[in-house]
Amino acid sequence: MKKIALFIITLISILSFTACQEKFGSDVVPQAPVSIVGKWSISGFGTITNIKTYEATLQEIKRTPKIDTTMVNALATGVSFDFKQDGTYAAGKTVGTWKTKDSNKTIDLITKDNTGKESVQTFSVLELTANSLKLGSKKFTKNASGNIEAGDFSDLPFMLLGSLAIGVKGSQKEFDDATFLQGTLIFKR
Fold first, then answer.
1. What is the 3-state secondary structure (H, E, C) of the chain?
2. Which of 27, 74, 122, 181 has the fewest CB within 10 Å, making it most exposed?
3. Residue 170: phi, psi to the nearest 5?
4. Considering only CA atoms, which of 62, 72, 35, 74 is closest in space to residue 189?
5. Is the pLDDT at 41 greater than 50, yes or no?
6. Kindly report the CA angle at 83 between 116 and 96, in degrees rounded to 5?
7. Residue in 106, 104, 91, 98 with CA at minimum distance from that of residue 138
8. What is the spatial distance between Cα 163 and Cα 182, in angstroms, rounded to a whole number?
9. Rounded mean pLDDT of the chain?
């Protein structure tokens, strides 16, 4: 009986090894996890709503008549992130530290003002591949009157970011029908 059990275990082990080798090949090298470390350049903006997701490249935003191309050009050349292995980052003239949390689902960007007071901006990591990074800003909801509920003045840039892509790719009706919106920053290596 022991010989039969040993034979079955050996057979299962050999079949499992052979099956894995056929599926993956003997020359498959495990891939290292994708890392946020490196240089990222802005390539567009997005708006996520309860109805639809909108994404607009910098070129599409530049072609929109009501948007100042000077601002878009400044964004194209000035908004890039360089995340270093040691937990520091540089974004244009801004430098600080970064850390991921929640199993790399969020990233905190920490800066200090000239008095040493810390400021933390938290983004959702919505997508991270070898060459693509999408960060989500704060989510804004609309109240019963249909107005976006922004917290304080520091939320204003994120509220504007949240409405940028829908302003380029969507309609006023789509904006009005949305009950929440969240802006995204889209980066490429």
1. CHHHHHHHHHHHHHHHHHHHHHHHCCCCCCCCCCCCCEEEEEEEEEEEECCCEEEEEHHHHHCCCCCCHHHHHHHHHHCEEEECCCCEEEECCEEEEEEEECCCCEEEEEEECCCCCEEEEEEEEEEECCCEEEEEEEEEEECCCCCECCCCHHHHHHHHHHHHHHHHHCCHHHHHHCCEEEEEEEEEC
2. 27
3. -110, -170
4. 35
5. yes
6. 5
7. 106
8. 8
9. 80
Report the C-alpha gap between 161 and 183 in whole angstroms. 5
What does DSSP say about strands 53-57 and 38-49: parallel, antiparallel, or unpaired?
antiparallel
pLDDT of residue 101: 92
Q: Over range 35-43, report the average pLDDT.
A: 93
Pull the structure tokens for residue 18. Answer: 């052979």
- Closest residue by Cα to residue 183 from 168, 165, 162, 164: 162
Structure tokens at 91: 């974004």
Taking the CB of residue 180, how many other CB atoms lie within 10 A of it? 15
Strand bridging mode 106-112 / 38-49? unpaired
